[in-house]
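Table S5 (text form). Sequence records supplied for joint modeling of the two-component complex.
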Amino acid sequence: QVQLVQSGAEVKKPGASVKVSCKASGYTFTGYYMHWVRQAPGQGLEWMGWINPNSGGTNYAQNFQGRVTMTRDTSISTAYLELSRLRSDDTAVYYCARPLLTTMTNMGYWGQGTLVTVSS
Amino acid sequence: QSALTQPASVSGSPGQSITISCTGTSSDVGGYDYVSWYQQHPGKAPKLMIFEVSNRPSGVSNRFSGSKSGNTASLTISGLQAEDEADYYCSSYTSSSTLVFGGGTKLTVL
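The corresponding C-alpha cell record, covering 230 residues in total, follows.
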C-alpha cells in the first residue's frame, strides 16, 4: 500500500532554513508527482508546489518563490522540501501528498505531517 | 493566485443534505475539470473525497457528490451523519500548472 512517511518535528530560529523529508513506499516513486502543502495553526491549507520525481522539474506557488526548494533522491524514494529565511508565520504543519493517479491535479495520499515551529 | 472562495461555515441536521460552494475564475475552476474536495478532521491529515469534479476515490461513501457550473464547483453531502462534521476544502488546477485551495468550510452537524 502507498505510504508517505515524513521526518520529525523541527524547531528553528527566524532566518534559518528547514529541510523536511518524505519517504515513499508501496509504489514506483518516479511515476507520480509529489505536492507539498502547509497548514498554519488554526488556518486553512496552502499549496506550496510540486516536484516531478522522474525529471526533477518543479513548480512553486508564487508566495514561496525564492524561498522554497523541492528536490528528490530517487535512489531512496524520498522527496525533500527546503524553506529558507524562516519567519514566525512559517510555523505550520507541512505535508507531502501524492496524486491519486498519474495526473498531478489532486492529492490522494498524504504524509502524516511535520510540525515546523519558528521561534526565537 | 488568489484562494478559491468558500463559505466559512455550513450546518445541517442528521439525515439532511448540505452543499458547499467553491468559486474561482476561468483560469482555474471554470477552465478545467480538475476540482477536488478534501475532508479534514481535527489533528488529522486531509482526505481526498472527490476528484476531477465528480469522481469518488475507492472507499468514499456515495453520500458525497460533486458538480460544477461555470466558475463555481459544489460538494453535496446527503444523509448527513455525525462523522461528517469536519473542515472541507476545495482545490483546483490552474492555468499556471499550479494548484490552489479554497479557504475551507467548517461543517457542523447539529
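Note: The first strand of chain B starts at residue 9 and ends at 12.
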